[in-house]
Design a protein that fits this description.
By secondary structure, this protein is mainly alpha-helical. It contains six helices and no strands. It holds the Pfam family ARMT1-like_dom.
Length: 105
Amino acid sequence: MKTDLECVPCIIKQTINTLKISGCSNKLSKKVVSELLQKLENIDYDLSPAANSDIGYIVFREVTGIKDPYYDLKRKYNRLALDIYPKLEKVVDSAKDKLYMAAKA
């Protein structure tokens, strides 16, 4: 599968969503988008969409210096998962079909 023109807006949207999550200023966000648009001028349409999807993250990282914009979110949801894990473990352990219940949980 090759990258199509319809993939380009998704790459831009993905980058904008990353900017929102990271809390970057409007000025810095505009700089990231400007750099991204320049990079997209030379996108290799022969590559898969997955291969091209990291362009936005690369530009984001280069311009902002933020290595992992999702770091705080990942920590938050990992904590939530660890908080409910003991309860889910009890539910699975007490189930007749443990595998089914584990998949359902």
